[in-house]
Fold this sequence. Notes:
It contains eleven helices and four strands; from the N terminus they run αββααααααααββαα. The chain is mainly alpha-helical. Helix 6 (about 130-145) crosses helix 10 (about 210-235).
Amino acid sequence: MPKKSLERYNYLELLKNKGNLQYNKNILQKKQESIIVRQRPSVLQKAEVDDFLPCKYCYKFCKKKKLYRHVKICKFKDMSEFSTGEPTRKRNKIIFPSVMLLQTENDHKQFVTEVLGTMRCDNVTSVARDDSLICSFISRLLQNHREHHLKRYISQRIRQLSKFLIILRTLVPDLRHLKDFLKTNYFVNIVQAAKKLGQYNEDLNTYTHPSTALKIGHTITQCANILKTQLMINNHHNQHRETKYR
């Protein structure tokens, strides 16, 4: 990139924002109350640290209520490797990647232990424990469902996803991890595994458990979004292009 060019300036700004993101994550882990934000609130405005989330494109911290508007006009959106080129119609699709950017490894381990420690010790649970993407999915579920009575529901979702991965392994023996299957060239295998999990009858064109096939579809979409966010953090652009389940 030539010196003093706009492209060079934007990349330098993005690099600075990534540094600020890491700084803010450290501050939040220490539970301190001073972070670097995109626009500092006035003295009259009352704002807490929890009121801010990072933009998934420029990594600047914005107020949650204004994040939706910022993402639509963010100047880094077009140049981002993670932009789909499609308008985001739901606010939760913006909030979720921002929350994932702030997730720490300690939170991840704590959340996973809460669920896996209460599940039955068998091959299905072992598959979930050894797969990093499934563990990240557990973390997301626990962040959204902190009520104690929902732990059983989360366990059921995890066992369903683990069984799905076991079926995928039988279809493609060379692959072991769920993230390896979330690529466009394995889309047919994803569909086949969903049909098998829902016990699809080709002769009657019906499912024995239609809700299972529907739920696993939603779960795979959520896992793909988690994987995209992880690749965003690690700057694995090429792998992100191959993750297209939405």
